[in-house]
Amino acid sequence: MSMRLRGRHVGWFLAALVSGAVAMVGCAVGGENEEGPAEVVEGPGVEEGDEARVDVEPLHLGDRGPEVRTLYGYLKAFGYFPNAELHEFIGWKPVFDQELTDPEVFDETLERALTLYQLAHGLPSDGTVNAETLALMAKPRCGFPDYYAGPHPFNVQDGVSNYVLSGLKWNKNALTYSFANHTTDLPAANTESDIRQAFNRWAAVTPLSFTKAGGTTDVRIGFYHGDHGDGHPFDGPYGVLAHAFYPSHGGTHFDEAENWTQNGTGIDLWSVALHEFGHTIGLNHSADTNAVMYAAYTGPRRELHHDDISGAQAIYGQKTIGWSWSGPMAGRFCTLINEPADPHHWNDNYLCSTVNYGFQWSYAGPIAGMRCTQIHEGSEPAAHTWHDNYLCVPNNSPLNLVWSSAGPIDGRTCTQIIEPGDPHTWHDNHLCY
Ligand SMILES: [Zn+2]
Ligand SMILES: [Zn+2]
């Protein structure tokens, strides 16, 4: 037994790692293994707290004992070794084809698996369970396996995106979603607004839209205890928080045993939903520790990082309609959006799209023979005459434009229409379609 933990917080720390691993090992080996690390656990008793006092002697190549089995169980649960429980994840293959011959012996295969785990999580990759690695393993995380499609190398060079694509995507942009149930931790309306916020973040950077609907929907959201029928049971508080499946499965499941909150205590629902919907649209885990798609939960993270945005746009492309307040965008079809009576830089503003939608702009009322949408900002002084401004498309256009001067509209793809040089609250104006 080579790994020794010392310090005042050793008890919860070891319990944190093992309590997560217990359920996962149980999930990994099913009934075929009656023993396992449950015997070395004193009980979950996990509390969020500091981990700074822990003193760890690294677990490494050549070590033997139940800690090695715990490590193996953890890596197995997240896709590094064969695991029948992970086959609901369509197309999933383990990083290593073979199980360890002796799960209590830290051999070279386990060392390589641990090195890949460290690479996948932005840790120094020395192949030993040092304090930093153990601390990360003790954190709650997403149940989605690492290296989903195999041991493809993570690119960890500076300036290069760490996102990894699954190769699977939705073959349409307008997606529907529904709730199988709601958590009992929050009022249903609060749960739905957090889910809406999470969807909005992905819709803001891609052509995707998410609309709540009845009947059979593309994305199905639910909160479940333990075994909930997809072969991937939840493990109780902490450990695995949620999981979601690649397109076009649509299942997005949250562990009801967690304390779901909206205020940063407990587990932040918005943040976890934002991460899970990344999988729902086809993103894998990112090694970028700042990314929403980083596997571990380290507290609220409610906005997409550029790594996440790059990943989503690599799958679905950028929004098809973009806005520029500093001249036309290269390579796009652009329409000048101006109001000559407004002195606030409304002379170099363009609406640009990847395909030619035939936009026409009018600052003198709707254009006859076209389908026109009024573009206005109520707080503009009347002298700036935004009341008679219209954006028009041909009558047979596929676009159904809707204007909002109070934020994006649920269920639609929206482009922010902003002129930073104009003091009249243009920041919350959106053109939706
Ligand atoms: Zn995940
Ligand atoms: Zn599930």
Tell me what the structure shows.
Keywords: Hydrolase, Metal-binding, Metalloprotease, Protease, Signal, Zinc. It comes from Chondromyces crocatus. Residues 1-23 form the signal peptide. One of its GO terms (molecular function) is zinc ion binding. The chain has 433 residues and is of the alpha/beta class. The protein has three domains: 5-138, Muramoyl-pentapeptide Carboxypeptidase, domain 1, CATH 1.10.101.10; 174-316, Collagenase (Catalytic Domain); 321-432, no CATH class. It has helices spanning 10-29, 66-77, 108-120, 131-138, 188-205, 269-280, 306-316, and strands at residues 5-6, 55-56, 141-142, 174-179, 209-212, 219-224, 240-244, 251-255, 260-261, 267-268, 321-324, 333-336, 350-353, 360-362, 370-374, 390-394, 402-404, 414-416, 430-432. The protein has a six-stranded mixed beta sheet, with helices on one face. A three-stranded antiparallel beta sheet has the order 11-13-12, with no helix packed on it. Helix 1 crosses helix 2 and helix 1 packs across helix 4 (131-138). The longest helix has 20 residues, at 10-29. The radius of gyration is 25 Å and the shape is elongated. The N and C termini lie far apart (62 Å). The structure holds zinc ion (2 copies). Residues 228, 230, 232, 243, 251, 253 line the site of one zinc ion.
